[in-house]
Amino acid sequence: MSDWVDFAPMTTTSSPAVHPTAPATTAPATRGGSFEAAVRGRGALLGIAVFWLASRAAMLWTLVHDVGHSTNTRVEVTLTYHNWYNVLVHWTMPHNDVMWQYPPAAAAVFLSPDLLPFLTYFQGFVALTVLCDAVILLGLLRAARREDGSVAGALMWLVALPLMMATPFARYDIHVTLFAVFALLCMRNRPRLGGVVAGIGAMVKVWPLLTLLGVPRGKSTRDAFVAAALSCAALLGVFAVLFKDTLGFLGNQGNRGVQVESLGGSALMAAKLVHLWPGKTNFQYGAFEYVGPYVSSIARASVGLTVLGFLLLLLWRVRANRWSSATPFDAALCAILVFTVTSRVISPQYMIWLLGLGAVCLTSKHSTQRPVAWLLVAVTAVTTLVFPVFYDDEVLTTSTLGTVLLCSRNALLLYATVWSGVRLWKATVRPKAEL
Q1: Domain carrying residue 388
Q2: Spatial distance between the Cα atoms of 421 and 368, rounded to a whole number of angstroms
Q3: Model confidence over 97-117: pLDDT tens digits?
Q4: DSSP strand E in 101-234: where?
Q5: Is residue 7 scored above 50 in pLDDT?
Q6: In sequence order, what are the residues at sequence separation of 6 or more whose Cβ sits closer than 8 angstroms to the Cβ of residue 170?
Q7: Transmembrane segments in this chain: where (predicted)?
Q8: What is the pLDDT of residues 184-223, one digit of tens each?
Q9: Short-list 409, 313, 326, 406, CA closest to 368
Q10: Residues 6+ apart with CB under 8 A from 312
Q11: What is the structure's pLDDT at 67?
Q12: What is the DSSP letter of 41?
């Protein structure tokens, strides 16, 4: 089987059978062609730049002026990240802090404000986060210039991120999303480079390694996986030499419980609302988690669902026999959705990952995930109502409003995950009789 099985545009509706080795067909004209052309104009690009500046200024304003309880949002930088920085400057990982749950290369992110010594730690961290946001947007705009490209991805990122208010600029998840986005964008023509970027991202927060799931079989897979493995090993070696206890994060991560915002947490929350569960909320491991009966069982069930989801993704990988240029993007979004919805955590900043990967999918007119990506925009809006808007007064107090909001967010996220998997499977797995 060739590296790229089939680049013909795919849809989830019935279509004539296409042989796996059939040549790529020319993408059909779309009704959005004139819109795409208009957006690529200089005037439209100026409008995008103006909207980016205005929307990001508004996000910074909410961060500085504590809009929507953003004091709780920025304390992550001013307290948690800054405390880690004070340990990391002495060339040791903060292994004694149970909140340190990240691979060793994350240290570089928390030390990065030193690149801007004329700013405070908080100002430097936020400034670099805004820069990462801008670089992601530029990458998505550049991807739109491909023959089968679409500007919808850039527009999604441009408009959807501000829905999260201050949260994206007070977390380091945009930095990680930057690696995942560029790993996917590079994977199409330069799988080795894509693998290197994915490997670096994995050493910052593990999940970017899943961007390799949809790399076509053959030489592309070998190149990408070998490059990712080498970059991971090289970074791990460098940080092992420079810092003490580089693998101390593994024990802290394994001790995580069931966070309030998780799928299992919303089930406990609903049970608590109707007085069927007597547990309580406790702040531990850097988050509000549930403690009480059945919590450990739900935590184990979450891990089991994660393993099951991973096995289903591997089954898709084995059974898939029809790739398009967008399949690596689609598979990456589906994989991260699976691992997000089965997580014991599902912190609000996880939506940054999903928005980034959804935006990458929308850069291709061949993507099967377009409706899923736009659904994630709605999920993001509901997530913001959960945190930070109603988090303290409604969610943590298990009020009716807080319960409805959280359960609705998780139900939408679960639906998006199943929908994503179904669309990916239908588009890429064809019975042999049809080939």
Answers
A1: 42-434
A2: 10
A3: 888 889 999 999 999 999 999
A4: none
A5: no
A6: 63, 70, 73, 74, 76, 77, 126, 129
A7: 44-64, 121-141, 153-172, 192-213, 225-243, 298-316, 323-341, 347-364, 371-391, 403-422
A8: 999 988 999 999 999 999 999 999 999 999 999 899 999 9
A9: 326
A10: 338, 421
A11: 74
A12: S
> SS3 of 19, please?
coil
Per-residue burial over 114-143, b = 16 or more CB atoms within 10 Å of its CB, e = otherwise: eeeeeeebbebbbbbbbebbeebbebbbeb
Number of domains in the chain: 1
Residue 37: the pLDDT is 59
Pairing of strands 258-259, 287-291: antiparallel
Residues 6+ apart with CB under 8 A from 8: 18, 22, 24, 25, 324
Assign 9 a pLDDT band (cuts: 50, 70, 90): very low
Quick check: is 343 in a domain? Answer: yes
The top-scoring range by mean pLDDT among 21-25, 110-114, 143-147, 214-218 is: 110-114
Instruction: Evaluate whether 75 touches 66 at the Cβ level (below 8 Å).
Output: no
Residue 20 inside a domain? The answer is no
Model confidence at 16: pLDDT above 80: no
Is residue 176 a part of any domain in this protein? yes
What does the block give as tokens for 390?
Answer: 């109603």
- Residue 206: which region, alpha, beta or left (left: phi > 0; alpha: psi -120 to 50)? left
Sequence-ordered list of residues with C-beta below 8 angstroms from that of 278, at least 6 positions apart, any chain: 272, 292, 293
**220: Cβ contacts below 8 Å, ≥ 6 apart:** 3, 4, 187, 191
